[in-house]
Specification:
heterotrimer, A mainly alpha (322), B alpha/beta (395), C mainly alpha (292), A: 322 residues, 76% helix
């Protein structure tokens, strides 16, 4: 009985420890404002990378519209709190919902397109979102929205990240998720087996979009100011690098990629052009030599540790018997 | 094929190693700035990204000022050390940099250049009670919160605000050039441009003028003939283009190619030698813009600045460099008057600055932390700047 | 009426620039079915090389040839390093690699030469403006349109009248079968990149002169637009690319000229989505069955 739940308990424990360490660091003044910002950014990036991975990695589509969905979420959320004066949880719900609806609107017609056409179409979608926002005076036009309540703190970021990852993981593990994988591997064969491919493509796309919307809401309520020009293609590109480095189709890979590249970005802050050159090189090298990314489709799970532990144990045993 | 398979892994490894090395090298570089007995002032600017040229100009102006001040013995017996950081023209980075500068123990921060980035950085500095001196952020909102009707205590600026520029230009066009029907083209992705366009329309129509056409563009646009053709068909007397020289140069050129020889007006974003090479000398006549200063101004301190800048950077300073230069000196002056490098005392001293003589004019602050300064009107004649007059905006 | 004519002419000159870029784009896409994201950036490199040559004192034609040669080599290099290995493995990885190359070119350029906008010195091309009954046209418009037409004719000749062209068509029809028939697929792809990138360089130089501005990110939007033009005309078809480019340019010009200047990019992307949904083969493309 205990053995069955042991991994989950261990995972919860590990999460609790991580949460507490950072919380103590923040409230104890051990972390400077700069690093707190970067930790929050890491959280937001984890949500963005894992949700893009759900679309690009698990269903094998190629979306470049993540910045657009994020913008939809950010602006909707900001309208709810800053313009309407409603509480933050409503902003999260509204932001995710709006991004999901945008996902349906974009997904339904374009997901019938082949991967690379989809890439350009979604890229275009992102640009359209920006231009439309620029022309709506209600959300401030080019100057965007400001004075958005700064309510985001570590517990909110932490919970959002954990719930997003759980959602994606459970989705992939479910029969829906396996249908998505089938679509990725061979959509024709999947169709033959009775999988409604459009449904599953759109479903994964919409979940990914909604999570990007969530990231947008968090972003808006941390920085308190958002402008349409922030949500350009470059933002999607940053997320794409995280996904590619971590591994298309590996959830833990996305987490590692997001953490790694947010940290790297903070250190490379002084040489931004070189940062972009290095990012571009990373993208080329990972695409050419390890199209499956650093981790490939491998996941780091508790079993990984068990296996490593087992190997270590066996090795030690062997030593002893010798 | 085999070559790549074999070397592939090595190459991948090499890239990763270079990356890691780059990260470390950059990380180490940061710490070198940490040394003893100087007054540390943050310089948070757009050194890369879409508006890098403006940020870089500002930074060059500031660092030139610091260099001269230190050569003359610094302030309060100490050297001023400018901690230069690049915010990549991004709001979030502008804020991150503000956090970073606070943790590095700066006593005040100069920059960022653009309105959006200043507003992103402001909450961090206000919370830390450290003064932010903006150089080129011209939106009224930067120093004054319209929603709560409160002045942002720790934000000051050296530039005139949008309404001042558009007011002076609309007065000049209406009263002296006697033109009544205008067209406006703005960069819709730029709050500076949109703000100027909006306030210009308000002032101009309040005087009895008419805006017969309004057009917009996005920064990636290069073809403006469709908008210009459409504007020409509405028969305006002039076109007001409050945008940056990158696009303005192309617009003026294309307008002249279409045979539109109307006067074209603009604002401080025009001020760059690049405008001339983009538009072509012959096309730059009958063009007027408002600016913070004029390189034609014979005043000695202005010419000294222009020569010093030219010597160092091999180009004539634009308005951004001049504003940066003034910001550097103003900050030093505030520290001198405060008699200490305490952030709070610097803020107090800035509040009480009276008639600070800068390159961009005499500066005192009004109750909203906006400088009360004259606005220069400059005419372009065959690509050469000619100072027409200086006008005091009405408040 | 005169305004409408002027707008159509504005569209024609903008469209011929798209067409000029789209011609190279469609060739490359036609043969490897990969969106060469970096094509726009090869244009940018071409513009810089041409600018450099002009500043070193070369004339218009020599600068053009230098830029074309440099970019042709660059194109072959890009294909060799970033695409060849990954193309057969995964299309998405190839596309990712292409995006990587695009950003690599942009930011390497920015790192070394700065983000500053640069201009061709006046006098590379003596500019003239003609008025045809009130409709204004410049000699630059004529130059761009003329170059596009000449390139289309030359490329059509290469593709349909030479052995290399035959090989290209074979590879684009069925790479594996072509290989079995003794076509050297890798060489053919390399030649396609060589020609396509040279075209891009020519487009880059003309673009730089036409708009009088050269900067590291100049190729991004035109590249995307040219792709849309290529899809609109029928991917792989050279006359199609020309037709698509001009149609796209005119549509954009009319949209921008009649109040929608903010939405001209949006309209272009919507055209892309519509054409892909309604007639994926484009206006002049051949119907190709998706192979199973």
């Amino acid at each position: 009985m205990l053995k069955k739940y042991f991994p989950s308990i261990l995972a919860c424990l590990a999460l609790a420890v991580l949460f507490t360490i950072v919380q103590v660091g923040i409230s104890g003044g051990l972390l400077s404002g700069y690093w707190i910002t970067n930790i929050y950014l890491m959280g937001i990036n984890i949500i963005l990378a894992s949700s893009l991975n759900l679309i690009n990695g698990f269903t094998g589509e190629f979306s470049l519209g993540h910045a657009g969905f994020m913008a939809v979420g950010a602006f909707t959320g900001a309208i709810v709190t800053a313009n309407l004066g409603l509480p933050f949880p409503l902003a999260i719900i509204a932001g995710m919902l709006a991004a999901a609806i945008a996902g349906v609107i974009v997904g339904l017609p374009t997901l019938r397109l082949r991967g690379d056409y989809l890439a350009i179409a979604t890229l275009g979608f992102g640009e359209i979102v920006r231009v439309v926002l620029m022309n709506i005076d209600y959300v401030g036009g080019a100057s965007g929205m400001m004075g958005i309540p700064e309510v985001v703190n570590w517990p909110i970021i932490f919970i959002s990240v954990v719930l997003s990852l759980l959602l994606i993981r459970n989705f992939i593990g479910s029969s829906h998720g396996r249908a998505c994988l089938a679509v990725r591997e061979n959509d024709l064969a999947a169709q033959m087996m009775g999988v409604n491919i459009t449904y599953y493509k759109v479903l994964a796309f919409v979940i990914g979009a909604a999570l990007a919307g969530l990231a947008g809401v968090l972003y808006a309520h941390y920085y308190s100011i958002i402008q349409p020009k922030e949500f350009s293609f470059m933002l999607t590109f940053d997320v794409l690098v995280m996904v590619m480095v971590g591994g298309l189709g590996s959830l833990t890979g996305s987490v590692v990629g997001a953490v790694l590249l947010t940290t790297a970005s903070a250190f490379l802050q002084a040489i931004p052009e070189l940062r972009m050159v290095l990012y571009a090189l990373l993208l080329i090298v990972s695409a050419v030599f390890r199209p499956q990314g650093l981790l490939g489709e491998k996941e780091i799970t508790l079993r990984t540790f068990e296996r490593w532990g087992g190997v270590l144990y066996a090795a030690l045993n062997r030593k002893q018997t010798e | 094929m085999k070559f790549w398979r074999k070397r592939g892994k090595a190459l991948a490894l090499l890239t990763v190693l270079t990356f890691v090395f780059g990260v470390f090298a950059a990380g180490c570089g940061d710490n070198a700035a940490e040394n003893g007995d100087t007054i540390k002032i943050g310089v948070n600017y757009e050194l890369s990204g879409p508006v890098a040229t403006y940020g870089t100009s500002c930074k060059n102006g500031i660092m030139l000022a610091f260099e001269e001040i230190n050569k003359d013995g610094g302030v309060l017996g100490k050297d001023i050390e400018g901690l230069v950081q690049d915010n990549k023209s991004q709001n979030r980075e502008a804020r991150n940099i503000a956090e970073k500068l606070v943790s590095q123990g700066v006593v005040a921060v100069i920059g960022p250049a653009t309105t959006g980035n200043v507003r992103a950085a402001e909450p961090v500095l206000s919370k830390a009670k450290i003064t932010l001196l903006a150089t080129a952020a011209t939106a009224p909102e930067v120093t004054y919160n319209e929603k709560t009707k409160k002045v942002r205590d720790y934000v000051f600026r050296v530039c005139i605000i949008d309404p001042d520029q558009s007011q002076v230009m609309s007065n000049y066009i209406f009263d002296e050039l006697k033109l009544k029907n205008g067209a406006i083209i703005v960069d819709k992705d730029n709050d500076y441009s949109v703000g100027l366009g909006r306030t210009f329309k308000e002032f101009f129509t309040a005087k009895g003028g008419k805006i017969v056409a309004e057009e917009g563009f996005v920064p990636t646009d290069t073809a403006f003939k469709p908008q210009l053709t459409s504007i020409a068909s509405k028969k305006p007397d002039f076109i007001y283009i409050p945008a940056y020289y990158n696009q303005v140069g192309l617009i003026i050129k294309q307008a002249r190619e279409l045979g539109i020889d109307l006067p074209i007006m603009g604002a401080d974003g025009w001020d760059s030698p690049k405008l001339v090479s983009l538009a072509g000398e012959g096309n730059l006549s009958q063009c007027y813009f408002t600016n913070h200063y004029s390189i034609e101004d014979p005043a000695e301190h202005i010419q000294n600045f222009i020569n010093a800048y030219k010597e160092k950077h091999d180009t004539t300073p634009d308005a951004f460099a001049a504003l940066g230069y003034d910001a550097g000196y103003l900050m030093a002056e505030a520290i001198k008057q405060a008699g200490s490098a305490d952030p709070q005392k610097i803020q107090d001293a800035l509040l009480n600055i009276k008639d600070f003589e800068g390159v961009t004019g005499k500066l005192s602050y009004d109750e909203k932390h906006n400088p009360i300064k004259e606005v220069s009107i400059i005419e372009m004649v065959d690509g050469k700047q000619k100072l027409i007059k200086k006008m005091q905006p009405e408040h | 009426m005169q305004d409408l004519l002027q707008q159509l002419l504005n569209g024609l000159s903008q469209g011929s620039i798209y067409a000029l870029i789209a011609v190279g784009y469609t060739m490359i896409y036609g043969i490897i079915q990969l969106i060469n994201f970096a094509h726009g950036d090869v244009i940018m490199v071409g513009a810089y090389v041409a600018l450099g040559a002009v500043l070193m004192g070369f004339g218009f034609i020599p600068s053009l040839l230098i830029a074309m040669l440099v970019c042709a080599v660059l194109g072959v290099l890009i294909e060799r390093v970033a695409y060849r290995r990954v193309r057969p493995v995964s299309r998405l990885a190839a596309l990712t690699s292409a995006i990587g190359v695009s950003l690599f070119l942009e930011y390497t350029m920015m790192y070394f030469l700065g983000a500053d906008i640069r201009t061709f010195p006046p006098g590379v091309l003596a500019e003239r403006t003609y008025s045809l009954g009130g409709v204004m046209i410049t000699n630059k418009d004529l130059l761009v349109l003329g170059t596009t037409v000449i390139l289309v004719v030359v490329l059509q000749y290469i593709i349909f009248r030479t052995r290399t062209g035959k090989a290209m068509r074979a590879v684009s029809f069925d790479g594996q079968a072509a290989q079995l028939m003794g076509v050297n697929v890798n060489n053919t792809v390399a030649i396609t990149f060589f020609i396509g990138s040279a075209m891009a360089a020519a487009a880059g130089m003309l673009y730089g002169i036409y708009f009088n501005s050269v900067q590291p990110l100049m190729g991004l939007m035109p590249g995307l637009k040219a792709f849309i033009a290529a899809v609109l005309g029928g991917i792989g078809s050279i006359p199609g690319a020309m037709l698509g480019g001009i149609l796209l340019g005119m549509t954009e010009s009319l949209v921008a000229g009649f109040g929608g200047s903010m939405y001209r990019d949006a309209v272009a992307f919507i055209i892309l989505i519509l054409i892909l949904l309604i007639k994926p083969t484009g206006l002049l493309g051949k119907g190709v069955q998706e192979k199973v």
